[in-house]
Amino acid sequence: MRITRASDYAVRVMIHLAGLAPGASMRQSELSQATGVSGHFLSKVLQQLVRSRLIRSQRGSGGGYALAVAAAGVSLLDVVEAIEGPVRLNQCIEEGPSCEHKSWCPAHRVWAEAQAAVVNVLGAATMASLALQAKSDPAALYRLHDKPISIPELSKQGHGREPRRTHERQA
Questions:
Q1: 9-40: b (≥16 Cβ within 10 Å) or e
Q2: pLDDT in tens, 49-106
Q3: Read out DSSP for 109-135?
Q4: Are 48 and 87 in contact (CB under 8 A)?
């Protein structure tokens, strides 16, 4: 599973708006500058967030974009699903006759556990908590990681292995 650029940008916007004073709004050009998202692409992301009722827009001289709901009530999962739709790692996770093999497939349980883990992690991260983190470390705000992130819990279980590189030349 890969989160699209649109979801990543939507999360940036939501964290930034969550960090504003309650009721404050920002113009699209200011959001573009603050989040590093190009104006044209940002417009599409903002439209989807408005349609999902996570943000509101107001036209006019005092207008702009603002959160439509409390930042503590919006999770990372809410934002991703507003852009992508329901998170599904595999079609067999869906209810009903989505896969004829799921009643006997040994991988089905693993897919279901992985699905639940993704939903739980994304659902636990609120825009309020992420905005607070961004304020506590403004130097890291919207910066790409200089090196890959390692999750110690996964490394201990053998899941954090280096990916195989099949296209490198052998010396």
A1: bbbbbbbbbbbbeeeebbebeebbebbebeee
A2: 999 999 999 887 777 999 999 999 999 999 999 999 988 887 777 776 767 666 778 8
A3: HHHHHHHHHHHHHHHH-BHHHHHHHHH
A4: no
Contacts of 52 (CB under 8 A, 6+ apart): 82
Tokens (6 digits) for 21: 């004073």
Domain borders along the chain are 1-85+126-163, 87-125
Residue 96's region, left for phi above 0, alpha for psi from -120 to 50, else beta, is left
Choose among 120, 128, 127: nearest CA to 87.
120
Q: What pairs with residue 55 in β-bridges?
A: 67
98, 168, 122: which is closest to 3 by C-alpha?
122
Domain covering 1-85+126-163, topology? Arc Repressor Mutant, subunit A (1.10.10)
Global confidence as pTM: 0.76
Tokens of 55: 């943000």
- The structure tokens 């939507």 sit at 10
